[in-house]
Request: fold
Amino acid sequence: MKRLMIGIAAALALSGVAMAQDTITLGASVQETGPLANTGRYYRDGYNFAIDKINEKGGVTVNGKHYKLALKILDNQSDTNLSVRQYVQLLTQDKVNFLLGPFASDFALADSSVAEKYQVPMIQGGGASDQIFSRGYKYIFGTLPAATEYFDSTLQMMGKLKPAPKTAALLYADDAFDVSVAQGTRKLLKAYGMQVVQDQRYSSNTSDFSTLVSQLKSTNPDAILVTGHETEVLNFIRQAKALNLSPKLYSFTVGVPTADFRKALGKDANYAFGMTPWLPSAKAKDEYFGDGASFATAYQKQFGYAPDYHAASAVADVEAFAKAISAANSLDPKKVRDEIAKVNFESLYGHVAFNAHGQINLPQTVIQVQNDNVVPIYDRTGFLGKAQYPMPAWNKR
Reply:
C-alpha cells in the first residue's frame, strides 16, 4: 500500500509538472502605481478577467494539445523608461510567449519597439496615437480607434444640433496621443466648416488652466474640444466653473465614460460630452464572455468597480491572441503574428479586424452626462438620445 501511495504521489507530481509546462504566458508592463494607475488597473484586471474566462472554456488548443493561458504582469510605476526595460525582461528573462500592452500612447509607442526588435507580437488596447502604427512595424496591433478620428462623431453630431455651433476651440496636451488627436481634429474642423478661434497646446499633467480658461472667455467659442488625460480634464472643468466659462458645449476625449469622473465632479459632471468605442450592450455577443452587458456585471462583481472601454479593449486583446494562436496551430511568434493580422471576429467590445497598419476601425459613440448618468447621444447611425444643449451657464444651474 505504501508503495502504491508513493507511486500515485509521484504520478501526480509529474502531472503537475506537465500541467505547469502546458501554459502559454502573456506578458505585460502595466501602470499599477503612479499617476496613471487609476486607468492602468483596467488593463491589469481586464487581462486577468479574460484569461480566467478563456481558461474556464478550455484554454487554447495547439496541435491537439490543450494549453492554459497565464499572465505575467510587471508594474512600470507609470514610468516609460522602466516600462521599456520591463518588456525586455519579459522576453529575455521571464521568457513569456507573447506581449500585451500598457496604457497610454507614449508607453505603447516606446514599448512596441521592443516587440519589433525581438519579433514577438504585442496586442494592446491602451495606445491610440497614429504614430504607433505609422512606422511600418509588423509586430504591433491595437484595439483602440485611431486618435486622429476621435472627434469625428462629435463633429458630425454638432452639425445636426440646433443651433449648430459655428466656432470652436481646440486644447490638447503634448503627449503622443493628444498630439495625434489634435492633428486629426484640425482637419475634421476644416472639413465640417467650423471656425477655429483658439488652438492651444498645454503641458501634460497641467493642474492650472486658469490662463487658458481666461483666454477662452475672451475668444468665446461655441464649442470647446479638449484632449487630455482624466486628471487634466477634471482640473479644466473645475476651473471653468470657478471662472464661469460656459460655452454651448464642451467635449473631452477621456473621463466622461467612467464612474470616477462623475464621482469626482458630482453635479458638475452634467452636460459634459465625451466619446467611447464601447458601451455595455447585450447586443455585443461574444463566445467567451456572453455579451457586453453580462461582462460588465461580472467584471464589477469581481473587481468592485464598473468597466469602461479600456477594460473591454483589454479583454479583446487577450481574445485576439487566443484566436490567433489556435489558428496558427503553433506557438511560433511569426506564425501567430501572421494569424493576428487575419483575425476577424465579433466580440463584446465590437468587431475586431486589424488593418494593414495593425489598427482596428471602431467608430466612437458620443455620450453625455445627464442627471448624473452616461447617456448615448449619437453614433454613425444618427441620434440615439436627446442632447442637453446648449449647456446652461454655471451660475444658472
User: Anything to note?
Assistant: The radius of gyration is 23 Å.
